[in-house]
Design goal:
Length: 152
């Protein structure tokens, strides 16, 4: 059975790399977009198991993006779990995100296990349980996955 694909909407290249790597370690495929505009175009073409959406995007921010996603879903009669990601220190940002239509919320920086548990809560399939945990990278994997080389 093919692994599920998570759409990552994140403008920071380092965060993109970390999220992509963690999703791979948890058994998911991922597609990364750097802006809400790119993500909205991708969502109109592809069905994703879930979306990780940075709130602090340039241009259309995450709160405006989720509103557009939810409007489109009303027309399509479908719903994709969307998890907010933010490094914001605003005390009210969680409430704003959930009111805007997010299904869950993760503050950056986060523990990888927190991400895994949130994804299991929204993307669990009994016929294809994904209970992988994060294991430390070996020295060989660290050399192969040097994010500076990949994002340069």
């Amino acid at each position: 059975m093919a692994s599920l694909t998570i759409l990552v909407i994140e403008d920071n290249q380092h965060d993109q790399f970390v999220l992509k790597h963690l999703l791979e370690k948890f058994g998911f495929q991922s597609q990364v977009k750097s802006s809400a505009e790119e993500a909205l175009a991708a969502l109109s073409q592809t069905k994703y198991a879930a979306v990780l959406l940075d709130i602090g995007l340039p241009g259309i921010d995450g709160l405006a993006c989720i509103k557009q996603i939810r409007q489109r879903e009303l027309i399509a009669s479908s719903r994709t779990p969307v998890i907010a990601l933010t490094a914001s220190v605003d005390d009210n940002i969680r409430t704003k995100a959930l009111k805007a239509g997010m299904d869950d919320f993760i503050s950056k920086p986060f523990d990888p296990e927190q991400l895994r548990k949130v994804l299991l809560r929204h993307v669990y399939e009994p016929a294809h349980p994904n209970l992988k945990t994060l294991k430390p990278l070996s020295p060989e994997e660290l050399d192969q996955n040097n994010w500076k080389e990949q994002t340069a």
